[in-house]
# Entry
Amino acid sequence: MPTLLRIDASAQLEERSLTRHLTGIFTGTFLANAPKSLVITRDVGLNPIPAIDQEFIQAAFTPLEEREAWMNERLALSDELIEEVEAADILVMGAPMYNYGIPTALKGWIDQVARIGKTFSFDLARGDTPIEPILSGKRLVVLSARGEFGFGQGGVRAHLNALDLGLAACAHYFGVAPGHVETIAIEYQEFKDDRHRASVVTAEARTRDLATQLAITVAQAV
Ligand SMILES: Cc1cc2nc3c(=O)[nH]c(=O)nc-3n(C[C@H](O)[C@H](O)[C@H](O)COP(=O)(O)O)c2cc1C
# Structure
């Protein structure tokens, strides 16, 4: 069954969030074109994921057979989040730009999903590239919104865009190869002018097109 994992990271509620608006369009269009799909929803914006801490790191780096009960408890949420990623063919992320980067809520999710022995392996026998992803074959759709503008390639603020760079850098932990990340972003939100309205219309149309195309591709492949 084609499976879509929808992750929302905006701290704003549905009616005030542009990224939730886009993930809603994506999910609705995807289901319309692949009605037998399963949608898993994970709302880290409204239900934040706890930050990783010393206990989490100790538990994650203790071999499975040596883990104490508290370690398994400490990793339970991470296990659940990873299972959702494993089940998914496509991950669609509503990812607002906060302070030029990834919202804390979404970074918290990434920190729990990037796990040694679960989503990546580490072996110094591989020389200078010891990390290898364990998952593969998934697609990532980043649906973003920004208050300012010019964050795309060649744009006036491209050098400030730590959001797209950060998500692309971590995509291998979710089983997504470099060429399989698609990003659609609404810009000019803080200007609330015609440029913003045009950006919303363009992003909505691109989101519908991409959801249709991916639904057909995934439904045929599964
Ligand atoms: C805490 C916070 C930080 C933000 N930082 C930036 C920023 O660095 N650059 C920018 O262009 N917009 C920034 N914005 C504007 C948001 O990217 C914009 O409001 C976007 O629409 C938020 O997504 P949402 O509508 O889904 O909540 C920020 C907004 C908030 C609330």
Remarks:
- Residues 19 and 93 are 8 Å apart (CA to CA).
